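Hey all, sorry for the wall of text incoming. These are the two entities for the joint prediction.
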Amino acid sequence: MSTCLHTLHVDLSTPSSDRSYPILIGRDLLADESIFADILEGRDVILVSNDVVAPIFAARVRGALGSRRRVTEVILRDGEANKTMAAVGDILDAALADRHERGAVMVALGGGVVGDITGFAAACYLRGIDFLQLPTTLLAQVDSSVGGKTGVNHPQGKNMIGAFHQPIAVLIDLQTLHSLPAREFSAGIAEVIKYGLISDIGFFDWLEQSASRLLAREESVLAEAIERSCAVKADVVSADEREGGVRAILNFGHTFGHAIEQVQGYGRWLHGEAVACGMVMAARVSAARGQVPRDFVDRLVALLGRFELPVTPPEDMSVADLMASMAGDKKVVEGRIRFILLAQPGNAVIVDDVSAAEIESACFDRANLD
Amino acid sequence: MSTCLHTLHVDLSTPSSDRSYPILIGRDLLADESIFADILEGRDVILVSNDVVAPIFAARVRGALGSRRRVTEVILRDGEANKTMAAVGDILDAALADRHERGAVMVALGGGVVGDITGFAAACYLRGIDFLQLPTTLLAQVDSSVGGKTGVNHPQGKNMIGAFHQPIAVLIDLQTLHSLPAREFSAGIAEVIKYGLISDIGFFDWLEQSASRLLAREESVLAEAIERSCAVKADVVSADEREGGVRAILNFGHTFGHAIEQVQGYGRWLHGEAVACGMVMAARVSAARGQVPRDFVDRLVALLGRFELPVTPPEDMSVADLMASMAGDKKVVEGRIRFILLAQPGNAVIVDDVSAAEIESACFDRANLD
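and here's what came out:
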């Protein structure tokens, strides 16, 4: 028997279309045949995973899917470097080879990379079929579960090709977090902390108090952290599904973070590590503007430090590298780079007037940072 | 000065989202700078065409786009065989190489293949940017202008990969029809006749009466035929944007038609030619069921004959070939092949109980057909 600790409903419905879906958070959900039967009924499945996650979790999911539906399995190679159109092509080829019809459901078992690739494949297959998310990393659980962003990278930049496509449900099995390497767990915590920073200072305070229990991966604390993170994200996304405005605050730390990842080459730092560093940089610029106290930056640095997350840019990276990279980011509006700063702790704001000099002074004066 | 003969508004709006767009039908629209300025304002453009259409029309479009916006040009190879993910990749590569942002607009100048590829590229680029249709074939003008279907072929079948993505506007320049080869013009007429068959018998009657003037490509008659075709399609699509139900009647003649194209290899018959034959086959099955008079089938055969469209399956194709091919089509629901028949002239109906024997008797008894 599984135990469902939290259920959150994401509601993106309009009067003319029902697009709400549940996020179930609990223990042993991936092995629970009745949950899959409720969500998928008798529909066929294209199960997509990768060569790291599949050996651990695919067997229990196959078991829970039962023997009465057709299941096509696609195992991708692990890693951000494989988040490409070629991987999407592999999924589409496999689905077509087995002649899956519009009623089939793509099921993403893995981290954010598997989820993003599979969601995009589902968006394109026969012009769009349903998909179900089974995120197995903390980052994917708090980031990819809500928002509907799917897609792949291009040599010119991250997530340049994709679609908005909402899942029919998200199952978050807390068991997956016990086998997660410490570095990947911390990368997910970075995004959790982000939600506190941008819109719920009470959540940030709670995270400071709960850091030891999070590090011990206590399930009840993990469940609460995930649920509150998804709730913040769902609130923001509901207000702005297609990213015209307020949704941009979810990119807090990401403009710097993406630039760090791109300049270094994807994969040297994990996405969440780059975001952790990016959040500190954005907080430092905010503090330099007098919008948050300097000791709030210190609290942020200390909290990230508990999880061994990086808080200063890579040694070999200059502010010029950063600015050049950011100029190619999607978050450019009419040639101006959009930054997310903190208006105050727990409250993010979008600005477009941050200069290279300001970033250099706040974030690259290494003598001051150490 | 251009002359706008008809303007049709396609309205797919819901209370929460505005998704209506205009279809402008007239003479010299592609050279009209003020029309492009109204629709595109100052936005940058990725202009996509092919190596047959671009030499004829690209210069006038470039002129009408003016010199103040950035224009990236992508010239694809002509033909259905090039409707592939590789072509989509070429467009995305070019757009990314020039660092086009979310405000840029993809402009499709060409027939249905260019429109479908470009629309899908626009749907995927930065998770979706706007696109503008400039259809240069009659088929594209009456078929691709309305409905939002975009996508590419896969070795396993036509249009297997794609997205629903609505254009911001469609400009139909009647001048493009004067240079269209007779065979392609007739292929477009097949779809025009389809709209009469499925939902407007008065339009079918008018087409019989206007056949000579259509063959002479009189602009006022062309404009009316296009406008009435788009109006029928818009009515059907508005009622069922995502193809759950009634929209399937637009596939009248297409289930047979796609099978003919696939069994022969794409390109031997034009899509519209295969549809013409498919419509006769569907009409014959309908007549065999007593739903339309046999002399109505004769009228249809005669009208298609005026435009030299094929009305019998290829000599070397068997009913078994056809059934095997149709089993792999998207129009399969839970293993049953969905057919569109005529309930009566001017009124289509969806059925799933047509047997191979019924098709063979109605459509492959060659002695009876000649």
